[in-house]
Amino acid sequence: MNARQRVLAALDHREPDRPPRDLGSTTATGIHPLAYQALKAYLGLEGSWTYLSARAQLARVEPSVVERLKIDCLPLISPVAAEPPALDDRRSYVDRWGVERRLPSAGGHYYVNRPPLAAVERTGELSAYAWPEPCTDFTSLGHEAARLRATTDKALVLNLEVGFLHQAQFMRGFDRWLMDLAADPPFAGALMDAVLEIWLAEAEATIHAVGDCADVVVYADDIAFQDRPIFSTAMYRRLIRPRQQRVFDLLKRSSLKVFYHTCGNVRPLIADLVEMGMDILNPVQVSAGEMGDTAALKAQWGDALTFWGGIDTQAVLPRGSAGEVRREVRQRLDDLAGEGGYVLAAVHDIQPEVPPANLCAMFDAADEWEDDAG
Fold it and tell me: 266-272 long-range contacts, Cβ below 8 Å, gap at least 24?
């Protein structure tokens, strides 16, 4: 099998020749530039690097690393994402939504420093806001998709803009957004709807631009905390699910497999997500709530879902020994890889605290598991 065939087999719940692997095909499975430079040095590779996403502080994984680690997926993402913003003297900038973002001196990625709608009190004020026009010209992304389809055998993963729930949080501030859901649902709904209309227009244009060159489309919107969903089931089904259903309906009209990213303990809402059309669950945050029993997840949802991720970034990859990393990888492969339906990846973006030796141990362990299985 080539890489694309391997990924498509896993997504179709057919046994591939080996479980496919990902590093850097999405903004949820990427690697911080400092971690990437350390990885390249560890592998004895020279040269500079470029951004995959400047806002998320992620490096683009180069072909030499892709081949060295046997990665099966490549990203499709708007080239605008790679453009570093012009910062003021406070290391801040204002994005096209009017959100002020700041890069902490200690590193990380750009955080919301000033949500522009924090002081708005009435639904009517939302219509007076200077909302951005939807971006609908993704010609250059379409050309890149066609080039990669013609020149590589990798599966291509289309990254959409961060989801409408996150964008509403950025606009309002996370604390105020949560209070709106409980105290003023009409306002919360109006805000989400204003963002959602723009998001859907851009998503539709993005998918149209790449045509049938992509294999997977990524929708990212966290709906869970470490221990439980953000919302009660009743609130989720009343305020969130109908709006997410519009997203899934749009994505399902394409031929692409729908990759949904949500951190945290999302297990109580998996049934809802499957009913809406989710094909792939990422990141399978095994350190969160009920998500650690990956064998049970596979037993209950393995026929309906592909699991993408699962290698712990909260403790094992950053602070574990190489042996602990190998045991983690073996457990997740044993639990999730049978009869397809699994793509090996870290739970979250690789941060500078992850030693390159541990990241390499993750892929070495997959080699060992495959040799034993063969």
Answer: 266/223, 266/224, 266/229, 266/291, 267/291, 267/297, 268/228, 268/229, 268/233, 269/223, 269/224, 269/229, 269/233, 269/236, 270/301, 270/305, 272/236, 272/237, 272/241
Give yes or no for residue 332 having a pLDDT over 90: yes
Distance (Å, rounded) from C-alpha 359 to C-alpha 133? 41
Would the pLDDT of 374 be above 80? no
Strand order of the sheet with strand 100-102? Answer: 92-94, 100-102, 111-114
Could you read off the pLDDT of 205-246 as tens digits, one per residue? 999 999 999 999 999 999 999 999 999 999 999 999 999 999
Tokens encoding 245: 């259903």
pLDDT digits (tens, 9 = 90+) for 174-199: 999 999 999 999 999 999 999 999 99
Q: Terminal CA-to-CA distance of the chain, rounded, Å?
A: 15
Q: Please classify residue 274 by burial: count the beta carbons closer than 10 Å to its beta carbon, then call 0-12 exposed, 13-18 middle and 19+ buried.
A: middle
Q: Tell whether pTM > 0.90.
A: yes
Helix ranges, the chain (H): 3-11, 33-42, 63-68, 123-126, 139-151, 164-172, 174-183, 185-210, 233-235, 241-252, 270-276, 294-301, 316-319, 322-336, 356-373
**CA 20, CA 4: separation in Å to the nearest integer?**
9
CA 154 – CA 159 distance, rounded (Å):
15
CB atoms within 10 A of CB 152: 15
Answer yes or no: is pLDDT of 75 > 80. yes
The one-letter amino acid code at 37 reads Q
